[in-house]
Structures are given as C-alpha cells and as structure tokens.
Amino acid sequence: MTATTTALVPRQPAFSDAERLALAGFLAGYRGLTREAYALDLRQFTTWCRARSLSLFAVRRADIEGFARDLEARGRARATVTRRLCTIAGFYKYAVEEELLEHSPAAHVRRPRVDYESHAVALDRNELSALLVAAGLGPPCEHAPISLLALNGLRVSEATGADIEHLGLERGHRTLTITRKGGKVVTIPLAPRTARAIDLAVGERTEGPVFLAADGRRLDRHGAGRIVRRIARRTGIGKSVTPHTLRHAFITAAQMGRIAFDATFGRSGESPPPAVQRTR
Description:
Layout: H1 17-28, H2 32-51, H3 61-73, H4 78-97, H5 125-136, H6 140-152, H7 156-160, E1 167-170, E2 173-179, E3 185-189, H8 192-202, H9 221-235, H10 243-268, H11 274-278
Antiparallel strand pairs: 1-2, 2-3
Helix pairs in contact: 1-4, 2-4, 3-4, 5-6, 5-9, 6-8, 6-10
C-alpha cells in the first residue's frame, strides 16, 4: 500500500498591501450613495482582474479598455461604462498621488461618448395630480413619501434618510432638515400637504426614521421605489415611474412656474416684490 501526502499550497492574498491601502484610502474620501457606487465599480473591476490573474498595480491601459469593451458586450449603457472608467481613473490617480504607483494606466483610456440630453420619463400635470390623489387614498406610509418626492422634489436618499428629530417649525412653516448630496445639511419648508401626510405617517413616534418599512426598519430607496411603482399602477399610469420621475416632475413644474413668473413681471414692466427678490 502506497502512502500519499497532500501538500497545502498557501493561498495568495487577493490584494497586495499597497493595493489594499489604495482601495481603502480612495473609498474613504466618499460616503453615502457615492461611496456605494464607487465600491461597486471597483468590486466589478477587481473581480474582472482576478478572473484574468491580473493584480491591480500590474494592469495596463489595454486591460482597462478590455474591461470597458467587455461591459459593452454585456449590454451596459454608455453612461454606466463611462462612470466605471471614471471611477477606475480616479482610483489610479489617487494611488499615484499617494506614491503607491508610479503612473496611472487609466490616464489616457478612451471613454464612450455620452448623450447628456435627458431621457427621463416625464409625468404631465394630470398624471402627477392623479398619482397624488391615489396616494392620498392609501395609507399614510405611502402618501407621505410620495408627497415629499413630488411636492418637495427631494432625492429618494434624502427622503428615506429623514428623521423625526429633524422636523421643525420656522416662521410658521413646517420644515425638515435633510442631508443633501455631498453631505450639505439644509432646512427646507414642507408643502402643507406633505406636512399633514408626514404627521399621519409618524403618528405618536417622537424619534427615529420618518418612514418605516413593513418590518419596522428604516425605509430604503428600494422600498420607496416599490411604493412609487405600486401607486403608479393603481393610478393606471403605463409609464415606468420611479422616485426620480417624481423629482423630475417637481423640477419641471418649478421651472415652468419661474418662467411664467418672470414673463408676468417682464410684460408689466414691474419688478418682483422685495420679499420675492430675496428668496430668488
């Protein structure tokens, strides 16, 4: 009988110390959804590299362009490919600045040309009104986020990140303090309908998230998206409606209102009241 032995082969780490430091340092400069998006981009790129036995700091320009062509072959949109390449370029630029790498292989990578014209799904005034009516006939946990998105134009992350402690009253107006994209903290006035809907959604609670999911935890952007789609179907809107669609409708209405406002005072030859001038 012949005895056999099995030698254990040491597993190579996924990243070198320098690569790990560069990844952690680059992502540490961001937070929130921006950090999540960049982490996803780098996770997909590093997975692609490992599948081809490429270390991050041995990557060449041709490899990055090969990654981009692979994304295109899998049907990714041009904007998605461009964003991934921008993230990769930012990562390697950070590594060079921190003297972890001599030069960036992404410095001259070609990026797809992006069409910057907005193709967002739009709701007309009647559709938006019908959606708000349908939301108002439903439970407060649906009516309140729909109102905050459509009547105050918040990003879904700003709405779902709102806390009860940040509700306030200023000069007779109900307000909400939110954290904007980039970490800027601002206080916004709430539309009367939004304030009433939020009061019903909050009920007797005095702290914690304004919006709760069915399991009692904070409502996230995916849950908010499901609410918006459910209300849109209930309304009979055949378009693909998302939380951003409601923000887009708010911004469009605000722009049209400003155009009408400017045109009214322009035709009359009068200046807006001083109080209005201060808010513009």
